[in-house]
Amino acid sequence: xxxxxxxxxxxxxxxxxxxxxxxxxxxxxxxxxxxxxxxxxxxxxxxxxxxxxxxxxxxxxxxxxxxxxxxxxxxxxxxxxxxxxxxxxxxxxxxxxxxxxxxxxxxxxxxxxxxxxxxxxxxxxxxxxxxxxxxxxxxxxxxxxxxxxxxxxxxxxxxxxxxxxxxxxxxxxxxxxxxxxxxxxxxxxxxxxxxxxxxxxxxxxxxxxxxxxxxxxxxxxxxxxxxxxxxxxxxxxxxxxxxxxxxxxxxxxxxxxxxxxxxxxxxxxxxxxxxxxxxxxxxxxxxxxxxxxxxxxxxxxxxxxxxxxxxxxxxxxxxxxx
Length: 322
Hints:
By secondary structure, the protein is of the alpha/beta class. The protein has helices at 52-59, 83-92, 100-103, 110-120, 127-140, 157-169, 187-204, 215-221, 239-244, 249-256, 298-302; strands at residues 3-16, 21-36, 41-45, 67-72, 75-76, 93-96, 175-179, 207-211, 224-229, 232-238, 308-310, 313-315.
């Protein structure tokens, strides 16, 4: 196991007034439990604002959880740990961001961008060895030696994302957090990036935490699936099992909203999903989905359901009898 989250919460303070006093909290994540093993891809899906990116940034330790534990190789790294563990974590876990233009320093050449993590971790003693390795990395992502002296603004969106991928794999990590890695790209370029990520996963035996709105893409990439709603995990398990047999009303609404390529199969969802998601500042007392669920009953408004079922498929819904 690479990463393990236990009862992780993340609240962001709301400040107001002259002295910027805390007047409330945005409840981005509520008691998330997650295990990411070697050589697997965990897909994360849900509406905008459900906490997907916050989860990815906590896994990459860009954000610190408000409470709970983040364990790396059996060591709690929620708070600052030893230098050796810190260094090992940074070499093991990397992240690919949604917008490649904003994630690359415009003042640095591509050579500097890819070389930076290698220099920070002192991977090579010889400058020539490092330069040869940088060229090799660029070749793996479909770029060439002549690109080394150029700056990010001189590349297309797809090329910039390839550069970001080259930087992410430079240290040969075991886990890469992919936060919507294709959403800012044209459809024709998306497939190229996805194929590249799959090839690199097989070559380096990496794991991915793959965050996306694109359900077809997540189905194509993932072994495990997590469905999130308002900071809660409402369904999780084997990706194929959930896609073929979604149980939670929210998951079923998501799956049924995916358009079919077959005109005879296209139809509006029979599942009733009404209203807007409630505010994470003031979430419902009971089930997070109770304000929009057609199947809710009195218990849903008062009590929050817990994930239950088999290891292969767990659901947080009182209607589920598994």
